[in-house]
Amino acid sequence: QQQVKQSPQSLIVQKGGISIINCAYENTAFDYFPWYQQFPGKGPALLIAIRPDVSEKKEGRFTISFNKSAKQFSLHIMDSQPGDSATYFCAARGGGAQKLVFGQGTRLTINP
Amino acid sequence: GAVVSQHPSRVICKSGTSVKIECRSLDFQATTMFWYRQFPKQSLMLMATSNEGSKATYEQGVEKDKFLINHASLTLSTLTVTSAHPEDSSFYICSAAPDGRSAQHFGDGTRLSIL
To answer: Does B62 touch chain A (CB under 8 A)?
Structure first.
């Protein structure tokens, strides 16, 4: 019940296209859903986060879509650029716990 | 804002030595810090949660006598890998948050290689 399942494991998108990464969770007590971007040899950097009281949040080219009834949330990267090539992790937290539960990660490659 | 600094970024040492890794929150006070381990091409595995002024809470399967955590101030937590062996080689990452409701911000990790 504590798992967050992320897909796909890897994704290749052409420059200018839309990258979409999906996550699903089971624990209905989760109330905070961040996305992190990680480049090789670096720590994860917070990209964008959402709470379940809204269905969508947009920051620049990055958008989180949240479906509470389906217990799913996704990251959309619009106008994908080669510099977006990285590993992306979704995560969830809630139920009084401070720790994050991470998805398995998606390795995104943007072809020029 | 919300910068977390981790030091050293890379360490190579002989088997049997102890290694200390520092995690500092530079522009905020962190009541809670987290320590993760990451294997190549895998997700982050939480090792322990560190609360300032109290004992760390270790995840199941993590040896607390092997991985000593100290959170003596609101801006500094340390992880000491005691009597390190080659199987302890990994990428160790810390994160910090001002409180339980805030976002976690990560350091840049420490690449530990035990020969």
So the answer is: no
